[in-house]
Amino acid sequence: MVNSEVAKEIKINRLDELYKRLPLDQKESTCLWLNIAGLKIHFFIYDNYREKAADFLKKYLKPFISQESTFPDLSLHFVFSQGQESSIQHSLWNQTIPRTYIQNKSDDTFYLIQRDFAAIHNRETHEIWGWGPQFGTMNSVTIDNFLSLCLAQAFLEKEALLLHASAAVHQGKALLFMGPSGVGKSTLCNQLADNGLPIISGDRLYIRREENTLWAYPSTVHIHGFETGDSRRTYTKYPIEEIFLLKQLNQFHYKALSPENICKDFLEQTLCFQPEFIDYSLHFQLAAHILNLSSLKFAEVSYPKNKNMLDFLKKN
User: Fold this and answer.
1) 57 and 143 in contact (C-beta within 8 Å)?
2) For 287, which DSSP code?
3) Distance of CA 187 to CAs 22, 152, 179, 304, Å?
4) Residue 154 CA to chain centroid, in angstroms?
5) Which domains does the chain have, with CATH numbers?
6) Helix 259-271 crosses helix 280-291 at what angle (to 10 degrees)?
7) 3-state secondary structure of 65
8) In the predicted model, is pLDDT for residue 296 greater than 90?
9) Per mean pLDDT, which range of 16-30, 91-105, 297-311 is the poorest?
10) What is the predicted pLDDT for the residue at 39?
11) Which segments of the chain are extended strands (E)?
12) Amino acid 1: pLDDT
């Protein structure tokens, strides 16, 4: 058993060992080409578990697999631990580290230490080298965390943010319901799916500004109760019509909001998954541009959990 400080030091030492071995022989790797919200990624997997892990990832990330082998925006490399440390159940991957631990290695390179993985990020080469347990059903959350954290700055540069929200499609437009954990996003997501609305997200999605339109893109994050390929889920991008701030009032409530009224909550729900190494000035600048798009509407809503939210929204 290792405690969190020991786990952190072990991860940094292993990253140093990995860094000394770079570049690794790509002949001993398996590569997946991904396209996530318009970001082109080459994802290399190394070592003994790569074929088994690649088979799992091809299923888990199937909607994001690209056939294009064009020059990527970013290259991800993941090296698996060996022996007992390859299991997500090993104590090395189960010690809580407050938020994400960042430590500079040089001007262009820094360590990114999380509970269930560790990585070296090189800003100059646009490469990220990760190290952690074997990918599989037991640790799909590790994959989601690795991708969302490591890709955060690259998405910012593509004018995209990861938003803590559920999202559904109504009449060809995306409706987003943002709010903190426990407010009812997933419950509403399942209710809207039962009403026949395609679901983009149950908890997190990418929003990306393209000229004067804000688009909703699915993230890789699993939606509770939905299997990969579930016909109720859509992986298509949709223009966003309205962003709702979801409140837990147990009654029907709708109040239109101005960009100024929703700004604080919007920033909270876009910053909650961002690691400390992002360019915050770029984040705030993009958020301001998004909130001032003339095509967007904002509102505060709540609903009784045993009542139909869709009927209420149609009336408003």
Assistant:
1) yes
2) H
3) 46, 27, 13, 11
4) 12
5) 4-150 (no CATH), 160-315 (3.90.228.20)
6) 140
7) strand
8) yes
9) 91-105
10) 94
11) 29-36, 39-46, 74-80, 101-104, 109-114, 117-122, 127-132, 160-170, 173-178, 199-201, 204-210, 213-218, 238-246, 253-257, 297-302
12) 61
C-alpha closest to that of 37 among 177, 200, 178: 200
Q: Residue 65, Cβ neighbours under 10 Å: how many?
A: 14
**pLDDT tens digit string along 195-231?**
899 999 999 999 999 988 999 999 998 887 887 778 8
In this structure, are residues 35 and 147 in contact, taking their beta carbons and an 8 Å threshold? no
- Which amino acid, one-letter code, is at 204? R
- What does pTM read for this prediction? 0.90
How many CB atoms neighbour CB 107 within 10 A? 8
Label residue 94 by pLDDT band (50, 70, 90): confident
Of the candidates 149, 151, 92, the residue with the CA atom closest to the CA atom of residue 116: 92
Pairing of strands 74-80, 127-132: parallel
Residue found by looking up tokens 């109040």 in the block? 255
Tokens at 59, concatenated = 């299923």
Residue 102 forms beta bridges with which residues? 112
Short-list 105, 76, 90, CA closest to 7: 90
Helix (H, G, I), strand (E, B) or coil at 127: strand
